[in-house]
Each structure stands twice: as C-alpha cells, then as structure tokens.
Amino acid sequence: MTNLERKPMSQNLNDVVGWIKDIFYRLRKLESGSFLENASISDGRLRLIRAILLLEGGALLKGEGTFDWTGPGSIAGDWEVLGGGVIRVGGVLISPIGGGRIMIGQGPVGIILDGGAGTLTMGNVRLEGNKIIVGVGANQIVIDGATGVAHIGTSMTLDPSTDGGAALFSNGSKLYSNPSAIGLRNGTSAVTVGDALATLLAGSKAVQVSPDAVSMLGIREVDSLDGIKLLGLTNTNEVVKISAEAAGLTA
Q1: How many domains does the structure of the chain reveal?
Q2: Is residue 245 one of the residues assigned to a domain?
Q3: Measured between alpha carbons, how far is 120 from 104 in angstroms, rounded to an integer?
Q4: Sign of the alpha-carbon torsion through 216, 218, 219, 221
Q5: Distance CA 156, CA 248 (A)
Q6: For residue 91, which of 109, 78, 75 has the smallest C-alpha distance?
Q7: What Cα–Cα distance (Å) separates residue 137 from each residue in 65, 126, 134, 142, 250?
Q8: Which of 133, 167, 206, 229 has the lowest tally of Cβ within 10 angstroms?
Q9: CA dist., res. 208 & res. 194, Å (int)
Q10: Is position 232 within any domain?
Q11: Residues 145 and 171 in one domain
Q12: What are the tens digits of pLDDT across the range 37-61?
C-alpha cells in the first residue's frame, strides 16, 4: 500500500494543494525574478538572432580578450568604426589605407598625416621628406630642408650657399650678401655696398666711393680736347661741367 493510500482523503488533498501552491510559487519567481542578473556562461555562447542587445541606464560593456567584429557598426559618443578599418573620433579619421593615414578636420584648415606617402598636409601646405611645399603652380614655394634652398615660383630661388646667401632670378641676376658686402649683379654690371666702400660697376668701368675718396676706374684716355668737358666742384660741392675754353685749355 502506498503512502497516498494509507493517508486519509483530506490529508491527501492537502498534499496536492501544497504541491500546486509550490509550483505556482516557483512560476511567480521565474516571472518576476532577474534570473540573468548574476548569470555566467562557461565554454559556450549566447547567440542573438535578429535581436538587439540593449544596455540602458548607464550600463557598462566591459571585458577583456579579443574583440572580433565583422561588418559596419557605430557606438554613440561621437566616434565610430567605418568600413576598411577606418575609425572616426569626432572630426578625426584614423585609416589603415595606403600605409596609414590620420585626418584632422576638413577644408582649408584640415590636416592629413599620410604614413604611406610620408607627408603632412594642411590646406595648401605640405611637408614631404625634407621639403616644405606651399601652394601649387607658378606661385608654388618649395623649401629644401637638406640644402636650405627655397624655390619661390618659377623665377626666384633663395640659396644660402651662393655668395654667402643670395636671391637668384631666372634672368641670371642675383641679390647677394657676403661677409664683406651686399650686392646686386646682372651680367657684367653690379652694385656693391661694403662697410667702407661702395662700388658701381659696368664691365671694366667702375666708380668707387670710400670715406677718403671718389675713384673712377677704367677711364678712357684721349689725345684731343675737342668736345671734352671738365668736371668741377662749386663751393656747395655741386658737380658741374666746365668747357676746355672756360678752363683756359686750348686744343
């Protein structure tokens, strides 16, 4: 005989009611409880299909190990991971394309650091190798950091190694400065100004001015006074022409 058969009918019914109450209590616990509040998965996985993992109320997604994600995605907070492995943080883009590139801002004040090309660009200013390149076309400026030479447009070059430092022009003229003088030269003509000597030169002819004298070099010699004028100084140091007759000279 079983225990159920040996008990009175009222006691058997009480047991059944108790079992039913216990079942309903457990169901209420499942319905109202947070059964994943302290859950863990070991050597398994949690798979969501056409579902959303929603974190709210200041929840924190925290972990360690390897983050492996396929496909586009975004995370609020003004940053996102784009296609091709590009990461955008505010106005900054970090890209692995072409050897790596960092782009800060856009437009004429945007900055691009290109690891593949080895360049740093801001608007129309570019750092490339040992050179700084500003602008494009006929007005472009190129500064060579290795030599110190600056090419300005197509007609002018600044060269620190020529005559102690010079501005060279496409027509062959130059403006230079060395330890003894500053000068301007075009072909066989030149003007130089030193500490105590200024020279105006045209071919083999020159005028030199020093604190002690005014000298003329390369003066042509003549055998006749015909058409010859003399130079003289007035009391006010004005330079004037004097005819040979006025000077008492005859041919």
Answers
A1: 3
A2: yes
A3: 11
A4: positive
A5: 55
A6: 78
A7: 52, 14, 10, 11, 66
A8: 229
A9: 11
A10: yes
A11: yes
A12: 777 888 888 888 999 888 888 888 8
Tens digits of residue pLDDT in 194-247: 999 999 999 999 999 999 888 889 888 888 878 788 888 888 888 888 887 777
In a domain, 153, yes or no: yes
C-alpha span between 183 and 174 (Å, rounded): 8
Question: How far is C-alpha 26 from the chain's CA centre?
Answer: 68
Do 146 and 174 lie in one domain? The reply is: yes
Tell me the pTM. 0.56
Residue type, 233: L
Partners of residue 73 on adjacent β-strands: 81
What type of residue is 239? V
Is 200 a domain residue?
Answer: yes
Q: In this structure, what token pair is assigned to residue 37?
A: 């509040």
Calculate ∠ Cα 54-55-59, nearest 5°. 175
Residues 206 and 175 in one domain: no
Q: How would you class 146 by CB atoms within 10 Å of its CB: exposed for 0-12, middle for 13-18, buried for 19 or more?
A: exposed
Rounded Cα gap, residues 175 and 156, in angstroms:
11
Percent of the chain with pLDDT over 90: 33
**Which pLDDT tens digit goes with each residue over 91-144?**
898 999 888 999 998 777 789 999 888 899 998 899 998 999 999 888 999 999
